[in-house]
Amino acid sequence: MTNLWQQPKTAFVYTDKLSQYQLSPEHPLRPVRLHHMHELMRASGLFDLANIESPAPRTATRAEIETAHDTDYVSIVEVISNGGIAPGMGEFGLGTSDNPVRHGMYDTTLLCVGSTLTASELVTSGAADIAFAPAGGVHHHAMPRHAAGFGVFNDAVIAMNAMVDTGLRVAYIDIDCHHGDGVQMGHYDSDQVLTISIHESGQWLFPGTGYVQEIGSGGGSGYSVNIPLAPYSLDAEWHAAFDAVIPALVRAFKPDVLFTQLGIDTHFHDPLTHLSLTTQGFNLAVQKLGVLGSEIGKWVAVGGGGYDLSAVARSWTMALATMANHELPEEVPSTFTSLDALTKFADTPPTPTDHRYLEDIQSFNSRTLNEVRSLLFPKFGL
Asked: Which end of the chain has less neighbouring CB within 10 Å, N or C?
């Protein structure tokens, strides 16, 4: 698939400070995954390319955080982060196994949000055609008044609020295995943001939402799109769903900016989820998003879920190369030693699903697509 940008100005917004903390010793989200990713990108020569720059992220301000979150919630996160005692923190979703409290959580989350804001500002100002902030996106479950699903401050909502405030229309596409419920909530009544989430159905996976019937409210009715898929959907089934819905809706919406959440917990080795994508299946999605981004002219990308360290490092390295229109070799460079046993960027695909279950998967996904097209396509004249 050809990227219509030949030499896009690509910004990779990152600092290794974003990998140097721990949520808890047993927590499945390991920020060190970003360090491994960065080392693989470096070993692959991506930072030697003329059209990739690596600007440092700024830190978000409290005022920016409060465009998406209640003041008392922001305050309690700050108090806990500084070692204070907060007996009522459970009300705010804090102190759970998913969202444990830790020293410094306020500052590291502000830096994460700031990385997404930096990427957004580079793209909207024209300083970059594409900007990728891999530390962002993982907070897509965070709600206005509480933490959820490893997310504290919802960087995507905050960044898109800033864009909407300047009069821009945004198409948000979330390919994380989990439904992007916090982002959907943040723009549920808006016709300025089209939110699309393609994910494993909430019938089987956290957060238990993201059904087709969740289409927005008030003036935003029709601008929230959900594509719940059956567990164990392989590359072919996932892409059939993507192709059937997403390009047509984005083009009909005519956004000023494309904003994508590139979670790689869809991978067949991911320990928390049940979809069955390969790294090459993921990268094909990035290529398709790149076509949409090139048509729109502005593309902001963030990371997201991803709990297999190999899949994260390889997939997001492949994504950055795709954004810059650079072809990686098949083999992982021998100079990369940050993780053991990585030999190729692409996967050997998983064993095909038993034919009986494949029919069930295709039938479930087909029903989803028929419901989406029936419910939402008329809104956009499709």
From this structure: N
